[in-house]
Amino acid sequence: MIEIRDLTKRYGRTTAVDRLTLTVRPGHVTGFLGPNGAGKSTTLRLLLGLHRPTSGSTLIDGQRFAARRRGLRHVGALLDAGDVHGGRSARSHLRALAASNAIGRSRVDEVLGEVGLTGVAGRRIGGFSLGMKQRLGIAAALLGDPPTLLFDEPFNGLDPAGVRWVRELFRRLAAEGRTVLVSSHLMSEMEQTAQHLVVIGRGELIADESLAEFAARSVQTQVVVRTPDPAALTVAVREVGADVGTTPEGALMVTGLSPTALGDLAFTRGIPVHELITRSTSLEEAFMNLTADRVDYRAGEHR
Ligand SMILES: Nc1ncnc2c1ncn2[C@@H]1O[C@H](COP(=O)(O)OP(=O)(O)OP(=O)(O)O)[C@@H](O)[C@H]1O
Fold first, then answer.
1. pLDDT tens digit string along 262-275?
2. Residue ranges of the ABC transporter domain (predicted)?
3. Does 52 contact ligand 1 (Cβ within 6 A)?
4. Beta 179-184 vs 204-210: how paired, if at all?
5. Structure confidence by residue, pLDDT tens digits, 44-99
6. Domain parsing of the chain, residue ranges
7. What is the distance, to the nearest Å, from the Cα of residue 51 to the centroid of all Cα atoms in its chain?
């Protein structure tokens, strides 16, 4: 379990993480979402003790991570797949990590197999594609068979088969009872991966709920209706307190009425209806709406 309490990190005038409090529980994949610059990577670095918080605290399974010996046995992390010594082979890179964490050599070959890199284990990492480096980073995270796993943007550079594999891997790791926290700035990557969502914007917590709760709360359903008398239907819809707009194609778009209620309303007012379609906003749209006022990150601007 990860416990973050009132965590703040400032870099000069920039507040990267702002009084963040949350608990990440084992048993399901938690998606850590936020637009670019929201503070996701900073939070992960603070969890690993790579940066010092300005204030607040982080605990992993009840202890500060920096206080742990043989850290890879407690927490596995993929932060920056490119941050590896290019002159080493994948196998020697993992062997060095294993040795410094008192992990047996046989585990290196196990994790190489797990991530599909056995065939290239003797090749220099410098010649690896980004997707291969991501796989190597995941292998390093798995090396100590840790109960807690942190992944920062793990889908970068992976092909569709790789994305699918990673999703299944994360779900399996969580089902084994581990704590799995995965950051991304794309809801589309998370909606098929995570069962729980933590959303931040400008370092602040915006949402902390299950994917199902997020969807129920944020996804709006609208009814698109075509009628030869849009003026009359607009008046009728407003009279019952629902909202109505117009689509670019000239149909009416009604929010706040079910298709049944809208059809009945038109019928009782004698307004012909030619087409009635229910349309839901996507989770990606819901996420963008939720974070819209926390995205102020434009080139050349300071926060
Ligand atoms: N070492 C640092 N020095 C100064 N500012 C930093 C440092 N690290 C992060 N920041 C700033 O803190 C803010 C949060 O950055 P962070 O990388 O944590 O966001 P993020 O959510 O991971 O974004 P992305 O999705 O783009 O990776 C940004 O404004 C960033 O410029």
1. 999 999 999 999 99
2. 2-227
3. no
4. unpaired
5. 999 999 999 999 999 999 988 877 767 899 999 999 887 888 899 999 999 999 99
6. 2-216, 220-280
7. 22
The DSSP bridge pattern shows strands 2-11 and 55-60 to be antiparallel
Q: Is the CB of 7 under 6 A from ligand 1?
A: no
| pLDDT tens digits, 114-156 | 999 999 999 999 999 999 999 999 999 999 999 999 999 999 8
Q: Coil, strand or helix: which one is 201?
A: strand
Please give the model's pTM, rounded to 2 decimal places.
0.85
Closest C-alpha to ligand 1, atom 25: 36
Cβ 47 under 6 angstroms from ligand 1 = no
Maximum separation of any 2 CA atoms in the chain, in Å:
79
Range 2-216 classified under CATH 3.40.50.300: yes
Q: What CATH architecture applies to the domain 220-280?
A: 2-Layer Sandwich (3.30)
Which of 8, 15, 41, 186 maximizes ligand 1 atoms within 8 Å of its Cβ, making it the mutation to test the pocket? 41
Is the confidence at residue 298, as pLDDT, over 60? Answer: no
Phi/psi for 286 (5° steps) reads -60, -40
25: Cα separation from own chain's centroid? 15
Which sign, positive or negative, has the C-alpha torsion 201, 205, 206, 211? Answer: positive
Residue type for position 43 = T
